[in-house]
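Technical appendix A lists one of the benchmark inputs used to test multi-chain prediction within the project. The record comprises two sequence entries:
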Amino acid sequence: MSDVRLEQISKAFKETVAVDNISLLIEEGEFFSLLGPSGCGKTTTLRMIGGFEEPTSGTIYLGGDDVTGLPPYKRDVNTVFQSYALFPHLDVFENVAYGLKRKKVSGAEIKTRVDEMLELVDLPGYSARRTTQLSGGQQQRVALARALVNRPQVLLLDEPLGALDLKLRKQMQLELKRIQKDVGITFIYVTHDQEEAMTMSDRIAVMSAGQMEQVGAPQDVYELPATEFVAGFLGASNLLDGRIESVDGPTAKVKLTSGAVVLLPAKRAPDSKQVRVGVRPEKLSISTNGGPTDGSNSIEATIRMSTYTGVSTSYECVTDDGATVVVYVQNLDASPAPVGAGQRVTLSWSPEHTFAVEPGTLKGAPE
Amino acid sequence: MSTTNLEPRGVRIGMRIASIFVLAFLYIPLLVIFLYAFNSSVAQSWPLHGFSLKWFGVAWNNDDVRSALLNSIKAGLGATVIALSLGSLAAFAVHRFNFFGRQTVSFLLVLPIALPGIVTGMALNSAINFGGTIFGLHFSLFTIIVGHATFCIVVVYNNVIARLRRTPTSLTEASMDLGANGWQTFRNVTFPSLATALVAGALLAFALSFDEIVVTNFTSGTETTLPKWIYNNLRLPNFRPQVNVVAMVVVLMSFIPVYIAQRLSETAGIFERGEGR
């Protein structure tokens, strides 16, 4: 059953269109992320589900009911705000109990549920603390507890980890995922961090300039980006211009501008003749003694720069027609292969790891 | 935090001397009045004749002083109550709603601070006379209160609107998100966030009203307030020691609320905007 359904939602603020006719189905119990650069409309979309903004047009359904015109306090949805928005004049217990008190839950039950929730977010014994005395990470947990204690149908999270430092953020990502599994509530999570989205989500909607670029599981959007924007936004990608020469059964043949011919599964070829062929940097292998013999795709290039980053070495290569290709090679040996700038190399990869997108204008620069 | 280390020693000493000079300039005249309030002689001459508390007793037993004090307190409280209700309502309206002419309304509310008291007083005086001919309005404590309210409203308005602007909208959104409707949100979140601003505004309003004389002169008729009593008796040598005592009381009654108001404004930081939008 779908839990949240957006039907042709648009939102305009004066002249600017923040959200441009998007439709979306989010399943019950799903960890769903809205991912995109700032200004792509992801937060506006979330705020419309929460009831803080009214769509200019379109309908929002929650568990089958039309909630488009309802104020926030009449929706079975709770929000974890980017700035936490904890009530500074109330202690931790009163903050978490706020929603239950509004629902006229009995005092004894409030006590049990708040304690239970503080346990879940790993803050037992913090009831009497003032929220202003807590660290950023602890405030974040209180904000989460305050929302979850109401057992909403859907929990909305607006970049909740944005203010935390990297280490704490990584830790909270796993914890949020654990909590979501525990409580089984649908989470809709807004972030501009692709790694964060991939770590936690069951599915990701990639947004750009108010529109949905692609919706899918993390592997799908990463391995098989549908648009040039998605390819560029989710990690580094190498894109080479070419033309589809022929489609031969399950395989499509693309002639690159450098003259090399590469293969990819035909079902991934876009409708256009002119395409950009892509491959992720970690899928490439680098060799100094000639091309592959196993039918892999390969191109010739020259190394411009190599950068040792500990777990891997990254090579920036230039093809003969001037395109830049980045290759990540895992440092399996203590001393990596001595390939340096200026070296002629052959880059090869499997047709299975090849995707192609329609050449498009980038709607928003990746962050 | 020692930014002073960036300044050359000479500059530091110079600035210290300058601040001492400014403080002396502000407070020595007051100190003189305080000293003479404890003078045992009627004649105001230096050095003091001797130390005495007798003028406090004399002033306290002076019926004119008592009724003036009572009037000043009544006028202060009355003006404060009007200022609190009208000032905060105006602040809510200007903050919450985006109506036509909002900037103008905001400006007009603040303007009375800058208007010369004598002009405000004159205008009120004619208005009261006009009201007298139409519906029998007459000069009384009530007209003093209304007159004081004109400049007290802006103090409350300014305090409340500043607090409203500094309180993140996400707090009210969070409250609504957790199931509180508009009224519950006001009672549980908005009002607590304003409480110290309201108290600070009220204290300042009271202090402003308590030592006001210009507008009072135009609106009081035969009623007397403490500042008005001082002004009327200043020229009478026999009353000089009592005037000093009363002046000291006026200073303290104004100083204490202003001090508390300032402390309240400082400690109210918990509601201010944090990070985020």
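The two ends of chain B are 29 Å apart (CA to CA). Residues 63-96 of chain B form the longest helix (34 residues). Comparable benchmark entries are summarised in Table A2.
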